[in-house]
């Protein structure tokens, strides 16, 4: 994982911080609250689709997990998926966790935001909303498997920014995103995004066609 904002501007992210006492820092927990997703990304790491999956925690079980995490004094909880906002009680769970003293980030594809959701996220007190893209315009839409995915993600970024919510951008370096890096950096600058992280692409049989 490459923190581009750190390389270019010296900015530190929550994952860079070290416990002030010098002791080993508490872990950051990434919790896939659901496997269900509204997109159909070509190289999805969780093989998610727009369908319900058995075995996911119900509301009571999820709250019990948050209580355990608070007891462990974890540094932060990153809510991801699938697409975490597909799960109807994701923000309710974050609100419950905040009351327990937990801090949260949200890892999302950015396509499901409206003003009400953005305000609620900001009021709950999410440290950051990490929005993932696979390039700009049609490149993103092709890799995300849905038309207008880029347009809707841009709307999500702007809606969150409008309510004062901190937003970061995450991209995976693929042959397509590499060829479009100039446009990506222009987009980051034009939208005023102050944190961007690029992940390494790990080819597999599922993505042999992406060359």
Description:
With about 210 residues, the protein is α/β, with parallel strands linked by helices. The protein has a single domain, classed as Aldolase class I (TIM Barrel). The protein is about 35% helix and about 15% strand. The chain has eight helices and seven strands. A seven-stranded mixed beta sheet has the order 1-7-6-5-4-3-2. The radius of gyration is 17 Å and the shape is globular.
Strand content: 15-25%
What is the domain total for the residues?
1
* Average predicted local confidence, pLDDT: 88
CATH superfamily: Aldolase class I
CATH class: Alpha Beta
Q: Portion of residues in helices?
A: 25-40%
Q: Largest beta sheet, briefly?
A: 7 strands, mixed
Report strand order across the widest sheet. 1-7-6-5-4-3-2
- What is the molecular shape? globular
Uncertain runs? 13-19, 205-211
CA radius of gyration: 17 Å
Distance between the termini: 21 Å
Tally the helices.
8
Query: How would you spell out the order of helices and strands?
Result: EHEHEHEHEHHEHHE
Per DSSP E runs of 2 or more residues, the count of β-strands stands at: 7
The CATH architecture comes to Alpha-Beta Barrel
Helix and strand content put the structural class at alpha/beta
CATH topology: TIM Barrel
């Amino acid at each position: 994982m490459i923190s581009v904002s750190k390389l270019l501007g010296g900015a530190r992210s929550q994952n860079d911080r070290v416990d002030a006492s010098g002791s080993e820092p508490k872990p950051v927990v990434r919790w896939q609250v659901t496997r269900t997703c509204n997109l159909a990304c070509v190289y999805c790491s969780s093989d998610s689709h727009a369908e319900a999956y058995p075995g996911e925690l119900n509301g009571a079980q999820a709250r019990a997990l948050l209580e355990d995490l608070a007891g462990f004094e974890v540094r932060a909880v990153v809510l991801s998926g699938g697409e975490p906002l597909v799960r109807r009680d994701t923000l309710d769970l974050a609100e419950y966790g905040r009351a327990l003293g937990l801090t949260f980030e949200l890892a999302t594809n950015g396509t499901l935001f409206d003003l009400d959701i953005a305000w609620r996220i900001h009021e709950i007190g999410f440290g950051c909303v990490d929005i993932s893209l696979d390039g700009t315009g049609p490149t993103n839409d092709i890799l995300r498997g849905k038309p207008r995915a880029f347009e809707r993600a841009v709307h999500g970024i702007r809606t969150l920014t409008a309510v004062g919510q901190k937003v970061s951008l995450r991209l995976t370096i693929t042959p397509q995103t590499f060829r479009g890096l100039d446009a990506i950096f222009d987009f980051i600058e034009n939208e005023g995004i102050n944190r961007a992280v690029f992940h390494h692409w790990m080819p597999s049989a599922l993505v042999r066609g992406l060359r």
